[in-house]
């Protein structure tokens, strides 16, 4: 593949991912709205469903800034959807955990989420094609992280 072809592939990939991100944000807003959440609130609550995490940990999982997560976490706590718990590993970095109200809000999203997953799976050609799509996107994400890390080490 020529240098120009690689650059074009990178540009097409970036545009496709930006478009995909916009579509995911729009559909996530629609899915989250009946539960009284925004897509961002849903993302943060979803990150801590398996277990409490510090705000910085949520930011790492989501790939966004700690400050963005902090603002959302504070709003979730204010509205009773999450709580801050002591962190045995770090006195100042509290852990964010969902409350029962937060878990209930996420549960209200589940039927629409399941329906969208089924429709998307069918549109992609079935479960195997859906899994392959996920694998390719995860591979792309990991490769970009690796390239960025190598560039940072050189700097």
Structural class: mainly alpha
Largest sheet, spatial ordering of strands: 1-3-2
Q: How big is the Rg?
A: 18 Å
Q: How much helix is in the residues?
A: over 70%
Q: How far do the termini sit from each other?
A: 27 Å
Overall 3D shape: globular
Question: Which secondary structure elements does this structure contain, and how are they paired or packed?
Answer:
Layout: H1 3-32, H2 39-48, E1 53-54, H3 55-62, H4 66-78, E2 82-85, E3 95-98, H5 100-124, H6 127-154
Antiparallel strand pairs: 1-3, 2-3
Helix pairs in contact: 2-4, 3-4, 5-6
What does this protein look like?
With 155 residues, this protein is mainly alpha-helical. 74% of the residues lie in helices and 6% in strands. The protein is built from 6 helices and 3 strands; from the N terminus they run H-H-E-H-H-E-E-H-H. The chain has helices at residues 3-32, 39-48, 55-62, 66-78, 100-124, 127-154; strands spanning 53-54, 82-85, 95-98. The chain has a 3-stranded antiparallel β-sheet. Helix 2 crosses helix 4 (66-78), helix 3 packs across helix 4 and helix 5 (100-124) crosses helix 6 (127-154). It is globular and about 55 Å long. It starts with a helix and ends with a helix. The mean pLDDT is 95.
């Amino acid at each position: 593949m020529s240098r120009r072809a690689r650059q074009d592939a990178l540009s097409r990939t970036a545009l496709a991912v930006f478009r995909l991100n916009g579509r995911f944000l729009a559909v996530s807003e629609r899915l989250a709205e009946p539960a009284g959440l925004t897509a961002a609130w849903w993302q943060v609550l979803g990150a801590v469903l398996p277990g409490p995490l510090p705000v910085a940990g949520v930011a790492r999982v989501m790939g966004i800034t700690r400050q963005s997560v902090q603002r959302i976490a504070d709003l979730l706590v204010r509205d009773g959807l999450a709580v801050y718990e002591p962190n045995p590993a770090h006195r100042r970095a509290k852990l964010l955990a969902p409350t029962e109200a937060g878990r209930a809000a996420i549960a209200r999203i589940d039927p629409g989420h399941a329906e969208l997953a089924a429709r998307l799976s069918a549109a992609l050609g079935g479960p195997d094609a859906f899994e392959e799509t996920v694998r390719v996107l995860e591979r792309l994400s990991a490769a970009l992280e690796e390239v960025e890390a190598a560039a940072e080490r050189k700097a």
